[in-house]
Design goal:
Layout: E1 5-8, H1 17-35, H2 37-42, H3 45-58, H4 66-80, H5 88-99, H6 108-115, E2 121-125, H7 131-134, E3 142-145, H8 146-149, H9 156-166, E4 173-177, H10 180-189, E5 193-197, E6 214-216, H11 219-232
Parallel strand pairs: 1-2, 1-4, 2-3, 4-5, 5-6
Helix pairs in contact: 1-5, 3-4, 6-11
Length: 233
C-alpha cells in the first residue's frame, strides 16, 4: 500500500538527546546552588536522577507523562528540605529551555525538508521536546505526544491516533524511529509500516520478532528511499 504520511520519533532520531538532558540537569543544579544552596547540597544531580527514577517506578499511571514525573520530583525535593511551595514553575522553565537546546544530526533537517515537499509529517514522541522552541515546528503537520494522548509508545493506540489525525489507514503511514521496541514493534503492532533509523548499524534484536521494513543509517537514506519509491509509484 502506498505511503501517504509519515510519523517521526524525535529524541535520538533527529538529535542526540542525552547531551540536552545533561545540560538541563546542570542548569537546574546551577540555579539551585545560587538560590537554594541547602537544597542543592541535599540533592545533587545523581540523587535527583535517582529520585526521578523512583517516581517513575512508583507512578506507573504517569508512564506517559515525563513532565509531571519531573515536577513531582522537584516538589518532593523541596518538601524534604522543609520548603513549600516549591518553585516548580521557575525550575521547570530552566529545565525545559535547556532540554530543548538540542543539536540536530546534520542529515535531519535537509531530509525533513525533502520529505515534506511530498508527504505530511507528524512528530510522535514519548518525550517533552518542544518543536517550536527547537525551531522546526513549521515542517510538521501534527505533533502527537504521549502526555496529550494519555498513552505512550509502544502502545498501538498512540500510533492509531496518528493515523486518525492524518485521516488515512494505518498501513498508509510510515513510522520512523530509532528505538526497536518503542518505535518499530509498537508501530508494527498498530499496522503501520516501519523504518528503523539505525545510526550505529546495530543488528536487529531478533527477540523482538520481524525486522522493520527499512533499516537505514540516517534520515537522508530515508528521503532517498521515499523519493525512489515515489518516482516508481
Amino acid at each position: 500500500m502506498r505511503i501517504l504520511a509519515l510519523t517521526l520519533d524525535l529524541d535520538d532520531t533527529l538529535w542526540p538527546v542525552l547531551p540536552a538532558l545533561e545540560r538541563a540537569d546542570l542548569a537546574v543544579d546551577a540555579w539551585l546552588q545560587q538560590h537554594y544552596p541547602d537544597v542543592a547540597r541535599a540533592w545533587p544531580i545523581t540523587a535527583m536522577r535517582a529520585l526521578r527514577a523512583q517516581v517513575a517506578a512508583e507512578r506507573l499511571d504517569l508512564a506517559h507523562d515525563f513532565t509531571t514525573q519531573r515536577q513531582l520530583t522537584l516538589q518532593h525535593v523541596f518538601a524534604t528540605c522543609g520548603i513549600t511551595p516549591a518553585p516548580v514553575d521557575a525550575l521547570w522553565e530552566i529545565y525545559f529551555a535547556a532540554r530543548n537546546s538540542v543539536e540536530l544530526y546534520p542529515d535531519s533537517l535537509p531530509a525533513i525538508r525533502r520529505i515534506t515537499t511530498r508527504w505530511p509529517l507528524a512528530s510522535l514522541t514519548n518525550g517533552n521536546a518542544d518543536l517550536q522552541r527547537i525551531g522546526i515546528h513549521t515542517h510538521f503537520a501534527h505533533h502527537i505526544c504521549s502526555r496529550d494522548c494519555g498513552m505512550a509508545k509502544p502502545d498501538p493506540r498512540i500510533f492509531l491516533a496518528a493515523a486518525e489525525r492524518f485521516g488515512v489507514a494505518p498501513a498508509q503511514v510510515l513510522h520512523v524511529g530509532d528505538d526497536p521496541a518503542m518505535d518499530i514493534v509498537g508501530a508494527r503492532e498498530a499496522g503501520l509500516r516501519t523504518a528503523w533509523i539505525n545510526r550505529a548499524g546495530e543488528p536487529w534484536p531478533v527477540e523482538l520478532g520481524a525486522a522493520p521494513e527499512l533499516d537505514l543509517r540516517d534520515m537522508n537514506a530515508l528521503a532517498d528511499w521515499l523519493e525512489a519509491e515515489h518516482s516508481t509509484a
